[in-house]
Structure formats: structure tokens, C-alpha cells
Design goal:
Layout lengths: L32 E7 L5 E3 L3 E2 L2 H19 L4 E10 L8 E11 L3 E14 L12 E18 L9 H4 L3
Antiparallel strand pairs: 1-5, 2-3, 4-7, 5-6, 6-7
Length: about 170
């Protein structure tokens, strides 16, 4: 097991098999799924020890929600509210985060969504076996760092759906 000297003892970082990482879309396979992967930079670090603010994950969820609405409705829509947010493990500058979002259900104007953020690559210090400050490792078991669910809205007059999608609502 990899030890994260910054927070390993203070937080139980659950590692999950990668097959459970792909969000199940059996509720309605016609609803889109969106993914985003990016590196947290030193500009994202907000706290001591290069810790990234949890609000950064919510911003990424908002970006994924926007893509989902564009794919479904042809419009960016609006994020109405989060139903739940769980911060499960710390994120640091240098970590690569993969965000996955899916649409769970669709109403007349509302779209219920769920999101997960996974740490897939992390910096590796020399004390942990890295050869230089630029060393990093791909996590064989990514770490679920945040999950949330929420509702987005696309006003009817802005929805550009095909007739087959419109008749299913």
C-alpha cells in the first residue's frame, strides 16, 4: 500500500477497484456520461501543505454538468442545487483528478445528476521512492476523493432536443 505522508494517518483514504470507478449507466443508457481529467497545479493549492480547496472539486463537477446539459439539451443550463456533497480524501497540488458525471433522471426542465472525483496520479516524494521532485506515480487503485449529487435546470425554451427525446418526457 502507498503511504501518503501528508494525510495517510489522519484520514482513511479508501482505494477502490478501477472497475467500480466507471459509473453505472444502467438507469438509462441513452443519457450521456461526461469525463474530465486534469492536474491540480500550485495555483489550485489553497492551504498549507499544498492542499487543494474542496470547492475546486465542486467547480469541476459544474464543468461536467455543463457538458452533460449541452449533450442532452444543446444548452449549458444552470446548476440549481447540490443534494449531497462528500469530501472523502485530500487533494494536493500535483494530483491528477478524473471527474465523472452522469444524468440519473430527466424531468420537464430538471436533470438529476451524480458526480465522482478520483485521484488517479499523485506526486511521489523522494522519501517515498521518487527519484526527483518531478516524480509521480499512477495509482493502480484510484482514490475516490469527492462525490456529489445535484439538480440542474434547462429552461424549456432553451432545450434543443430531437422529437424522440421530447416524447419520452
Amino acid at each position: 500500500m502507498i503511504k501518503n505522508s501528508r494525510f495517510a494517518e489522519s484520514m482513511e483514504c479508501k482505494r477502490v477497484n478501477s472497475e467500480s470507478r466507471s459509473m453505472n449507466t444502467t438507469e438509462n443508457p441513452s443519457f450521456p456520461v461526461a469525463r474530465l481529467r486534469l492536474r491540480m497545479s500550485s495555483h489550485d493549492a489553497h492551504y498549507a501543505g499544498a492542499l487543494v480547496d474542496g470547492a475546486r472539486m465542486l467547480g469541476l463537477f459544474g464543468d461536467v454538468a455543463t457538458e452533460l446539459l449541452i449533450r442532452l439539451d444543446g444548452d449549458e443550463g444552470l446548476f440549481r442545487a447540490y443534494d449531497s456533497v462528500e469530501f472523502l480524501a485530500p487533494v494536493f497540488a500535483g494530483d491528477y483528478i478524473e471527474v465523472v458525471g452522469k444524468i440519473l433522471s430527466v424531468g420537464k426542465t430538471s436533470r438529476k445528476m451524480s458526480f465522482e472525483a478520483w485521484k488517479v496520479i499523485r506526486p511521489l516524494s523522494q522519501a517515498e521512492g521518487g527519484r526527483a521532485v518531478s516524480s509521480a506515480e499512477i495509482l493502480t487503485q484510484p482514490i475516490l476523493v469527492c462525490r456529489a449529487s445535484g439538480t440542474c435546470v434547462t429552461p424549456l425554451e432553451l432545450q434543443r432536443k430531437s422529437d424522440s427525446q421530447s416524447s419520452s418526457n
